[in-house]
Design a protein that fits this description.
Elements: E1 2-7, H1 22-30, E2 38-43, E3 48-52, H2 58-64, E4 72-74, H3 80-83, E5 96-101, H4 112-119, E6 126-131, E7 137-139, E8 142-148, E9 157-162, E10 169-172, H5 182-188, E11 193-197, E12 212-215, E13 221-224, E14 228-229, H6 231-240, E15 245-249, E16 271-273
Parallel strand pairs: 3-4, 4-5, 5-6, 10-11, 11-15
Antiparallel strand pairs: 1-2, 1-16, 2-3, 7-8, 8-9, 9-10, 12-13, 13-14
């Protein structure tokens, strides 16, 4: 699998529009971006590719990164920074299958798959295919398993993508706190590459109205507020899952400038052979 990180930022991206903070200024100076989240996974055996989440920056991402348009897509949850780029399917695809969970969200009364189908019913180029969490399905010659994570108040899903021929495995935490259920962790376990949500360093938890939670043995919060991991939480998850390699994604411009571009925080355009 060839994995390209198209978008590695949070809901506003880095640099953030209209922001002159030190981190955004440094991003502009060195010419790096963290657009809204999206990951391109190419199966080099079959020549097919899969897109995980549809960023509002879809057009920019595909114009600036050397990747083919996807043959299929996955939507992890319905927040706009993961879904609203799907409107770009108009005139680009004859028929784009979209896989999403079939579990009904008490907050919306719909599953993610149902929301995709309803919101984009005007696009006759998009077909939503509901999938049951924990039940593997195949697309683009790859085996995919959706697993529930912890991103209140909406349901959200992480996923494992495996190549049945080579055994290569990519795990994505999805947008989540550190409180990922054990059954989900078992599916995500032992990846060759882990993409883990790490929106801010733990030191910033004191500035969140809800503070931090899921503290480690030294009192360091592994969750910022209640629905995203801290950098330290992402690294703890990587250790828990025995990840061979880890990139921290969904990062915000609130990282201090002297930490914002340090390893293992990802930036757009990184490519990994898994």
């Amino acid at each position: 699998m060839r994995v390209t990180l198209l978008g590695t930022g949070d809901t506003t991206g880095t640099p953030t529009v209209g922001c002159d903070c030190d981190t955004c200024a440094e991003a502009r100076r060195v010419g790096v971006e963290r657009t809204r989240f999206s990951v391109h996974v190419e199966n080099e055996r079959t020549g097919e590719s899969l897109l995980v989440d549809f960023s509002p920056d879809f057009r920019h991402q595909f114009l600036t990164q050397e990747v083919p348009l996807p043959d299929a897509g996955i939507v992890t949850h319905i927040h706009f920074d993961h879904l609203d780029g799907l409107g770009n399917a108009y005139r680009l695809f004859d028929d784009l299958p979209i896989y999403a969970a079939d579990e009904t969200d008490p907050q919306t009364g719909e599953s993610v798959a149902e929301t995709v189908a309803r919101k984009y019913d005007y696009l006759n180029r998009v077909t939503a295919y509901p999938q049951t969490p924990f039940e593997p399905f195949e697309t683009c010659g790859l085996e995919v398993t959706l697993v529930p994570v912890d991103h209140p108040p909406l349901i959200c899903f992480g996923l494992a993508i495996e190549d049945p021929e080579t055994g290569a495995k990519l795990s994505l935490s999805g947008d989540t706190s550190y409180g990922i259920p054990e059954r989900s962790r078992a599916v995500l376990d032992d990846p060759d590459l882990l993409l883990a949500d790490g929106i801010v360093p733990a030191s910033l938890s004191e500035h969140h109205p809800r503070g931090g939670k899921h503290v480690d043995s030294e009192g360091v919060p592994r969750t910022f507020g209640q629905k995203h991991m801290t950098r330290e939480g992402a690294l703890s998850l990587a250790s828990d899952l025995s990840a061979t390699a880890t990139r921290i994604v969904h990062t915000s411009h609130f990282y201090p400038a002297d930490e914002a571009f340090e390893e293992p925080l990802a930036v757009d355009g990184e490519v990994y052979e898994v």
